[in-house]
Structure formats: C-alpha cells, structure tokens
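Repro:
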Amino acid sequence: MSKTLRVHLALFLVSFIYAGTFTIAKEVMPVFVKPMGLIVIRVWGATALLWLTHALFVRERIRDRKDYFTLIKCSFFGVAANMLLFFKGLAITTPINGAILMVCSPLFVGIFAFFILKEKVTANKIAGLVLGLLGAALLLLGPTLSFSSQTLQGDIMVMLNAIIYSYYLIIAKPLLHKYSPLTVIKWTFLFGGILVLPFGLPELQGVQWAQMPVNIWWCIVYLVAGATFLTYLLNGWALRHANSSLVGAYIYLQPILASVIAITLGKDELTPAKVLFSAMIFVGVYLVSLPRFPLLRDKK
C-alpha cells in the first residue's frame, strides 16, 4: 500500500471517529458528566495511553529545549483551549450547529498555511476548499438548524475552537517532521492535561460514578481511546506526510459519515440531494490533495 493511500485511509478513519463524537459526547454530558469534567477524563485518559504506547514502541526524547516551548503552544491550542471551547460550546448548542461550524476549519487551515508555512495557494486548493465547504453546508442545512440567541454562546465557542484547532495543525507540523508523532503528542497532552485541571476538577467532584449506566461508560471509552488517543495519533502521522490543507479538508467528510451512521441506525434516510452534496465534498477533498490542476501543469 502506497504512503499516499495510507495517509488518506488514516484521515478517513479520523473523520469517521469524529463523526460520532458530536452525538456520543451529548449522551454523556451534561447529565452524567459536565463538559469541563469530561475534558479532564478525556485528556488524562489519552495521556496515559500515549505515554504507555510511547514507552513500549518509541522511547524518543526531545533533543532541543526550545522545542518544549512549541510543545506548550501546541498543548494550549491543540488540547486545552480547543477541547474546553468545543465541549463547553457543544453543551450549549446543538450537534448540527456544532458540525456545520466545524467544517469551517479547513478554510482557516488554508489561511494559516499560506501565511505561516508559506504553502502555495493553487487554483485547485481554493476550488476544493470552497466546493467542500459548500457541499458540507448544504448537507447540514435543514429545518433543524437554528442559530438562535439560546445557542449563540455555544456557537461562538465552537467557531473559536475551529480557528484554534486550525492554528494547532499549522504550528505542530514542523515538530512532526523532527520527531515521531507519538513523541510530539504525548508531551502535548501532558502539558494540555495540566492546563485543563483547574477547569475540570471541580466538575468531576459531582460525578455519581456508581450510578453511571454501562452504555455511558462505553461512550467515555469511545471518547478517550477513539476520539482522542487514536484520532490525534493518526492526524499527527498524516500531518507529517501531507500538507496541512489536505488534513484540514478531511473535516468536510464528517457530515457525510455522520449521515451514514444515522442512516445505518435508521435515524435518517438517503436522498438524491445528500448524494449530490456528498459528491461535492469528495471532489473538494480530491482537488485539495492535488499539487495542481492536471490541465494547468507545465507542458514539456
């Protein structure tokens, strides 16, 4: 299997796992665990898995002390601020509002990549980002979408989370070329875990652990092992071998996969419009992955 195909499979798996996060997280919070408390569980659970996996398979050290400063930045933007805003916002807004706001991330990734990493802006990247965003927006827009005053605060938090996560994808890339993704992410989560403790510990004190149903425990396992440990690891590996715009563009697939999950569970139905909008997203991701339009390549 080629490296390019492995990158796409890794990013697809990340999108598939994230697609269920909106609904699964809402099952847990705020009834059983409040948002900030759930973040502490998620971050420290993933931190334990990351450090154990790193000790068994990598055992790499940070060679340059200056890189610790960048790791602290990654922990703030990629873990602490990102998760605090996302989960707090999701507790206030609706899953659909949160999903449609998150698909704005690739646009911010493209902007940051241009100004910070000096990635080239090509016609196909612009067309792919716009087409993907349009397809995702059309797929998510519906009678249940409502940006009302009741959800406004949550909507703003999710939007800020999208911007912050996009910035994280940019600043983490140089480190991921220098070190193993496991090395970068284990330190990012350790520092991030320290940052979220003051916000989440008070909410954990009110959790009724003994009264928590088994299905909620499984939801927490999914959020820790799947939506945190595995997704950050796969995203980090893909970011090392692909441009930031492609990694960000895969966020567009989440609405498609969320719809597939809903249809499979009998909670939604397939329509011609959904097929069309999904095709727009796939084409958009394909265009972003191309260096240039085939018709625009230099002729020899």
